[in-house]
From TrEMBL:
This is Membrane protein. It comes from Corynebacterium guangdongense. Pfam families: VCA0040-like (PF04018). The chain crosses the membrane at residues 84-107, 119-138, 144-163, 175-204, 216-234, 246-264, 284-302. InterPro entries: VCA0040-like (IPR007163).
Amino acid sequence: MSQHHRQSPAQSAPPVIDAVVNALRGFLIGVVELIPGVSGGTVALVVGVYERALAAIGDAIGVVRPVAKGEGVQVSARFRALDWLLILPAGAAMVFAVFAMAGPLTAFVTDYEQTARSLFFGMVAVSVSVPLSMVYRPDLTSKPWVWLLFVLGAVLAFIGTGFTAAPVEQLNAPIVFFAAMVAVTALMLPGLSGSFLLLALGLYAPVMGAVAERDWAVIGTFVAGALLGVALFARVLRWLLDKHRTVALVTMAGLMVGSLRALWPWQDADANLLLPASGAELAISLLWVAVGGAVVGLMLVAERRLRHFSGTRHVIAEEAH
């Protein structure tokens, strides 16, 4: 990630306004990232900070290299050049949102399990369109074999979540650390929800419960895993999207489809799938599925319109010059 990345329109705003807006963005992304099925990366796109955030992550990782080589001057220069007007307010607001909302969301998932699964099922089902919409269209016809990767990803995710979808009764540090490493990558990918990955692993309720109860041992382990995940995967993800974009996105979509197994509204305590209910119960579940899909659909429409508006404004500015 280049340190001299393209500035976003928000960076031309006065510093105080930029910081306040970034805090609001961070709070919204933090709240949404707690909801299985809604991607924090998608929300970052909607609020116009996705590319700037990826650049900031890349620049922050770039500070580590001079440290390892003992190049103090470069460390100081790169550290000062970081996008602090984004990192500090957005990061602090995200942390606040996580601690403020973890309790209510845990109670919702625990007390209204079928409703929660129905809602999240609709959200994830519609979110599958996000990675597919980012694919270079001609590749889908010139490389038809990529659909085999879609099917393979779906099958593997379906089988995998069959073993892990049941809630974990007792957390242990290695599992929490590894889950955080994997889940944090979803924050950088539009359409993939970190909380959904935790849910698919059976860790959503216990991890959110630990956050709500301020279990600092679990929280510290999760944060350490998340930081290592960002350091290891940020550049790998960027490389995959740059060099093998279609393969990565189609496979990702397949994994999301197969992982819907974890959110099937009708399942027993051991995560075995059951036939749909009938009558009023079925109607209510389908209503919540529709609500979840509509929420994500509205977000995607808003993101596309904002992106179109930003592109139009950029063209007008270029013509004015």
